[in-house]
Amino acid sequence: MVWPFKSKFRKQIARIEITGAIASATRKRVLEALKTVEERKFPALLLRIDSPGGTVGDSQEIYSALKRLREKIKIVASFGNISASGGVYIGMGAEHIVANPGTITGSIGVILRGNNIERLLEKIGVSFQVVKSGPYKDILSFDRELTEPEQNILQQLIDTSYQQFVQAVAEGRSLAEETVKSFADGRIFTGQQALELGVVDRLGTEEDARRWTAELVGLDPEKTLTYTLEEHKPLLSRLLPGSAQVSSGLRAGIDWMEFEMSTSGQPLWLYRP
After folding, report:
1. How many angstroms separate the CA atoms of 106 and 35, rounded?
2. 8, 137, 243, 262: which one is catalytic?
3. pTM of the model
4. Is the torsion defined by CA of 168, 169, 172, 177 positive or negative?
5. Catalytic residue among 51, 59, 83, 85
């Protein structure tokens, strides 16, 4: 049976916000939200990004989902205070990008960090006995230096991930790969500079991006509402809004610590100031 009334969502713009470090929780939330956008038949999506980036795989899955959705609806990305590294990569899934003049963006590149506490362990008399199936099974072990062959292996891994990033930016922005590589050396730049480099389309606020999104699908910018697909908040946060504000800073700190611990030794598309 065909429902005789048009969905109310056809005259609204969907809005999804991506904030903080991108990891598995972000991926799950955003992919669910994108599915809802498609099911409710929104004509367009405003993607607000305020993130320094994050894990490679999670960023790639969000980017791929955005590219698929872009075949059906218009998608405009709005870069906030910071949209760097993996935040830029996700933005490439949008058809158009708007940034503030002072937005911190760029940091196109890959980083992998490990910890070496070998000298500390020697001072306190701690050592490890390792039995492994191959010479590289304990690569990036924290109790010893990397060997030269290990450094070469990891550099090849980083170079492959970097090339994937460059290709995505080149495709998303219709730029030559060599042009992208000229500024994809890990440097950060402002939204103004990003416009000059061709990384973004326009300078403006999120409201400017919203109005442009409405115009792209033939809706009146003055009357069109946005429907934000938010993460479900805990019951306590909904009942006591004040307590949510107090705990938000603590929660952010805990989340960042968990991210640092869980991604140690992983290649990251992440801006680390």
Report:
1. 28
2. 137
3. 0.86
4. negative
5. 85
